[in-house]
Amino acid sequence: MSVVQPQRRPATCPSWCTLGHGLHAGEDDTVHVSGALMVRRTVLRLCMSTDPSTGEQEGPYVLLGGEEYALHEADALIDALTELVDRAAVPGPGVSPRAGS
Length: 101
Hints:
By secondary structure, this protein is α+β, with helices and mostly antiparallel strands. It has one helix at residues 71-89; strands at 31-33, 37-39, 42-50, 57-64, 67-70. Helices cover 19% and strands 27% of the residues. A hairpin with a 2-residue loop joins strand 2 and strand 3. The longest helix has 19 residues, at 71-89.
């Protein structure tokens, strides 16, 4: 019977990271990725890396499918989508309310 070593959680690991650390050497062990959220068939995640020699952090970023958004860009996208949904919720003359209402 073999003993499995517990995975270490680096001090730089954010609370949302779901990766097991200590399994890879070097830079691969400094990447942090959240659990996935799905919208239709698109995966959304948080991602961040930390330079092991300097401690400098890159990110976090929102990964939306194959696209990477800085947090301020993701926030602007949320605002724009919310505005579009709000506009659609108020039907004009001859326009039916949005589906699902």
